[in-house]
Design a protein that fits this description.
Layout: H1 3-6, E1 13-14, E2 17-18, H2 31-40, E3 45-49, E4 58-64, E5 67-73, E6 79-83, E7 97-99, E8 104-105, E9 112-113, E10 119-121, E11 142-146, E12 149-153, H3 166-170, H4 172-175, E13 186-187, E14 192-196, H5 200-207, H6 213-216, H7 218-223, E15 231-234, E16 237-243, H8 252-264, E17 275-281, E18 285-289, E19 294-301, E20 307-315, H9 321-351, H10 367-379
Antiparallel strand pairs: 1-2, 3-12, 4-5, 4-7, 5-6, 8-9, 9-10, 11-12, 13-20, 14-20, 15-16, 16-17, 17-18, 18-19, 19-20
């Protein structure tokens, strides 16, 4: 008898309502391996924006569990992606972001590669009799570009798990972004990573529902009308809109933002200047589009009870004084919002450790979160179990 049939199954519904995942999946040491293999590697992951690597040799890296990827701009202007691993002894090649003007050189033994990944240099070459350098180039990683962002996917083609192009997945929701000219945007700062002491699924659950906004984010509620009934979605991607209230918030940064944004966002159609757009793409991506700028964030597992929030902010070049002012105000407001989310998620992580907790029913306002849970149940059948199995697939 296998572990799945031996364990007690959990029900996906409570009465007529779907229910949340069992508490054990949010703090089990075996989950991280399975989630990397079955959820994250077969999905598109943002590395950076195309304008984050504008010059030949510019590069950016992404770490995804045990994997590391580097994307760089070749001399012919093309964008390439490779496993960030030397073909000699496996040393990591590059860290963070930077520029390799001529070639990529391994810091361990000096093996050197062209921007197109070809091996061109091996110190003490005569010590490798018969070495065919053409067979030892960097391993390529599949890429896609959408909305100005460079995506990579680590799923081997042999597994038949390669996803469809990003633009096809986003479908009509991607069309909504045209007025914002995302492809023309430039980084307003480096990519940053924050550590949260919560399981990545708790953070993603939080980003996938707005049910908590009136209580958990009083600033957003002061500034914006609720977006509960203004949701749109396609399979795997959801969008929520928030519209600025006519009544100004009593908080200076919030109220000043409300009063300045129409003038600052004259590059947009008038009906888009007072709208914040929130897009969530399964399994772990968020893209927020504001009148003055946009950002992305990824929620990445970092082991049981811990995750990384990786992201950056982008905006159109040539900002006016008013646009710079609302970007500053927006930054202040969003720091507060992110801190509130971090605090709320930590309370969930602690509460799920209680022996008294059983999965509660989900509101229809948590439908996108339920879609996420069903994806997890589909890819990792153990998620359907009420208690952790003794063995995992």
């Amino acid at each position: 008898m296998n572990s799945l049939s031996a364990a007690t199954p959990g029900n996906d519904t409570v009465g007529d309502l779907p229910h949340a995942l069992p508490a054990w999946v949010y703090n089990h040491p075996e989950m991280t391996r399975l989630e990397h293999e079955r959820i994250l590697m077969p999905s598109w992951q943002i590395v950076c924006h195309v304008n984050s690597i504008p010059k030949a040799g510019d590069y950016e890296t992404l770490d995804l569990g045990p994997e590391s990827v580097v994307v760089l701009r070749d001399r012919d202007g093309s964008i390439r992606a490779f496993h960030n691993v030397c073909r000699h002894r496996g040393a990591r090649l590059l860290d963070g972001a930077g520029n390799c003007p001529a070639s990529i050189t391994c810091p361990y033994h000096g093996w050197t590669y062209r921007h197109d990944g070809g091996l061109i240099g091996t110190p003490v070459r005569e010590s490798f009799p018969g070495l065919d350098r053409a067979e030892h180039g960097l391993r390529p990683v599949r890429t896609d570009i959408a909305f100005g962002f460079i995506f990579v996917c680590l799923a081997p083609d042999s597994q038949g798990a390669f996803p469809q192009p990003v633009s096809k997945t986003w479908d009509k929701l991607g069309e909504e972004l045209k007025a914002y000219r995302c492809e023309e945007m430039v980084p307003l700062g480096p990519i940053s990573t924050d550590v949260w002491n919560v399981d990545w699924k708790i953070a993603m659950d939080n980003y996938l529902e707005s049910y908590h906004v009136p209580i958990g984010h009083p600033g957003l509620y002061r500034m914006f009308t609720p977006d509960y009934d203004d949701q749109a979605k396609v399979p795997g991607v959801a969008r929520g809109l928030s519209w600025l209230r006519e009544k100004r918030s009593s908080r200076w940064s919030e109220g000043l933002y409300q009063s300045l944004i129409d003038k600052a966002a004259e590059h947009l159609p008038a009906d888009q200047r007072r709208c914040w757009r929130f897009y969530s793409a399964l399994p772990n991506l968020g893209i927020d589009v504001y009148p003055e700028q946009m950002d992305f964030f990824q929620v990445l597992p970092a082991g049981p009870g811990k995750c990384f929030i990786r992201g950056a902010v982008f905006g159109l070049p040539g900002a006016t004084r008013e646009l710079r002012a609302v970007r500053y105000l927006s930054g202040r407001i969003n720091v507060s919002i992110n801190n509130e989310d971090k605090w709320l998620c930590a309370r969930v992580q602690r509460g799920l450790a209680s022996s008294s907790y059983t999965p509660g029913p989900l509101s229809r306002l948590e439908g996108c979160m339920h879609e996420f849970h069903n994806l997890l149940r589909q890819r990792i059948p153990e998620f359907r179990l009420a208690v952790a199995p003794k063995q995992f697939g």
